[in-house]
Specification:
Elements: E1 5-9, E2 14-18, E3 24-27, H1 32-40, H2 44-51, E4 58-60, H3 65-75, H4 97-104, H5 107-115, H6 130-136, H7 140-148
Antiparallel strand pairs: 1-2, 2-3, 3-4
Length: 158
């Protein structure tokens, strides 16, 4: 079992979780009160998994495009096998790896996919773009990165 260690910077409000395998995740805008609650919890790991992991934007500095696509292929239903997966592959609902990274709020993954040439305005079956997901889940840094890469603001999408 991988157990993270935690480091918190009160000035930047960034919580870094470093796993014993070397993977490091930076979680943005974590309130000091939540961090204080976490360090007092009987199990910091349980508290982190329940209250931080899926609640804040993060950046996984361990990703490369290849490891990211492999992880997505292994963990998200509907994507093709590793050998067939590319940056613009789609699930049966037409979500791309960029849609998934925006749902997660993983800024580093979003940056990797954009730099590798992901289509920023591709729509899924519901008509949602990666920008829709980043905005819906409140991942501001991902929103800014998508807009900087040329994503059309939602109100201008047909």
């Amino acid at each position: 079992m991988i157990k993270p260690s935690f480091l918190y910077d009160r000035d930047t409000k960034i919580l870094t979780a470093t796993h014993d395998d070397g993977a490091a995740f930076d979680f943005f805008d974590v309130p000091p009160a939540l961090y204080n609650e976490m360090i007092r919890a009987p199990s910091q790991v349980d508290f982190f998994n329940k209250r931080v992991w899926n609640s804040f934007e993060y950046s996984n500095r361990h990703h490369t495009v290849g490891t990211l696509l492999s992880y997505i292929s292994d963990n998200i239903v509907g994507f093709p096998d590793d050998e067939m997966l590319n940056i613009n592959s789609q699930t049966y609902e037409n979500d791309t790896p960029l849609h998934i990274a925006c749902i997660w709020g993983d800024l580093h993954a979003v940056e990797l996919l954009i730099e590798a040439g992901s289509q920023v305005d591709v729509k899924n079956d519901m008509g949602y773009t990666p920008l829709h997901f980043a905005e819906t889940y409140g991942h501001r840094r991902c929103v800014h990165r998508l807009l900087a890469a040329g994503a059309k603001p939602i109100e201008t999408l047909p």
